[in-house]
Design goal:
Length: about 210
Amino acid sequence: MTIRLLTLLFLFNFCTSVFSQANATTQTTINKSSTATVVQDIYIKILWLDQNGVLQLNTNYIKTLTDQQRAALGYIATDVSNECHWDGDKKADASNLKCKFLSALNLGYQCSDTHLSFLKKWFKEDTKVLERLQYCQKTESSAKIQDRFSEIKMMTSINTIKIIYSAVGEDSEKQKTWRWQEESTYTFTKNGIKQINRKNINGEYN
């Protein structure tokens, strides 16, 4: 009887231990999967203004961006920009306007061949974006009328990029300002990117 009892107790403890380990492994796998999903659903701040109104960039994160992410960010920067100054004397064709954000994205001068050819390559199948790129405007920071970012944040999943940015506009002659917030969504593959939605979610343009 004693031997049978000991054997039964041993088998019971062994089975309990195996079940606990299997359950722990399953729970760990579930947690890892959930964590991965949560990470994909978090907006990463790319650009913002500090308490003194000074432009700040998430430079460490920007260095890790894919070309698709750079294309999406480089596209919204065709209309709105911060800290743009002529790199040396202004050239006759105004081709040397250096903007801090675009420089961080390694896209050259604003509306330059480097900037636009990169966007045209990645948005090659998006006719609306290609049409809009024809009207890229070069606006230096001292311009009387200008728009500038106050915050940009981006979220990337397996094949989708979402960007929300806040911006402020100013007309120094009329002493007028305006603010707005925009959300845009992009789908991408290894060869291209398309804008599938763009909407104003707060405020209005000038």
